[in-house]
Structure to design on (289 residues):
């Protein structure tokens, strides 16, 4: 029996080693073609557009370095970071509760989390306009209750942009955190309680550290998505809350300055890649991922 197992192992290993470089390349060819067509070629075209107008020049990148566009980049990163922080604070308790309820309660919570993801971002953004405009539901309720004398300016400002983006991106924080919490064995909490730890200490010393990979993953997803958000800031934001994606859209559709829009897009892509790489390096160094 042992001899038969060794023979099977040798034959399996031989079969596995029989794939050469050419065979492996052929197996990967559909993915490589898709990668070139859907990513490499568009990014290369974008880079060339930002540099050629019609000769090789860096004037568009020098234009981006002006104070106006630097403020737009800084504002975009600040809002993206704020949205990631708020979604983390709001999403973690929801994910924690979802990981512990069962039956119909778990089903209803899952439905409430997933249905917004299936709803158009445009529809959800317009709903905030209905809620926050001067004659909207919120202002009418406040005026009717006698709390204010005249409608407040609740929309077309940075607060409205952050609130609407948190609403849209919250599920992308809840789901990774829920996955991390669900993977934690229940026996760890029981063992901590048996050793005399209070529920608060168990959460702080056992649950929270083990769920941090989900928190980090959700924060990265939300932050990267918020960097390139276009529809929601364009609808509920004003001139004082111009973000980089909205600026790129204006350069393409209004001023038709494609080279400058390509330079902005290239810098945004480079910033997104840099954030992702730094995040991965940091997490590898800390041993979280």
């Amino acid at each position: 029996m042992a001899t038969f197992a060794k023979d099977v192992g040798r034959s399996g290993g031989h079969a596995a080693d029989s794939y050469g470089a050419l065979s492996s390349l052929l197996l990967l060819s559909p993915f490589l073609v898709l990668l070139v067509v859907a990513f490499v070629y568009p990014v290369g075209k974008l880079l060339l557009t930002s540099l050629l107008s019609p000769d090789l020049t860096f004037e568009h990148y020098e234009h981006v370095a002006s104070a106006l566009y630097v403020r737009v980049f800084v504002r975009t990163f600040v809002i993206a970071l704020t949205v990631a922080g708020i979604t983390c604070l709001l999403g973690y308790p929801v994910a924690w509760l979802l990981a512990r309820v069962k039956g119909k309660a778990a089903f209803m919570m899952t439905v409430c989390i997933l249905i917004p993801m299936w709803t158009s971002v445009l529809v959800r953004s317009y709903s905030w306009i209905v809620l926050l405009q001067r004659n909207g539901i919120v202002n009418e309720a406040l005026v009717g209750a006698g709390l204010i004398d005249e409608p407040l300016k609740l929309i077309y400002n940075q607060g409205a942009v952050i609130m609407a983006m948190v609403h849209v991106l919250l599920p992308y924080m809840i789901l990774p955190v829920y996955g991390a919490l669900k993977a934690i064995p229940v026996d760890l909490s029981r063992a901590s309680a048996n050793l005399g730890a209070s529920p608060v200490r168990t959460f702080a010393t056992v649950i929270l550290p083990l769920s941090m990979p989900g928190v980090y993953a959700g924060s990265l997803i939300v932050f990267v998505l918020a960097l390139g958000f276009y529809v929601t800031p364009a609808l509920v934001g004003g001139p004082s809350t111009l973000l980089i994606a909205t600026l790129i859209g204006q350069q393409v559709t209004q001023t038709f300055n494609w080279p400058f829009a390509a330079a902005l897009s290239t810098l945004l892509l480079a910033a997104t890649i840099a954030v992702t790489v730094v995040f991965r390096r940091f997490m590898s160094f800390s041993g979280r991922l």
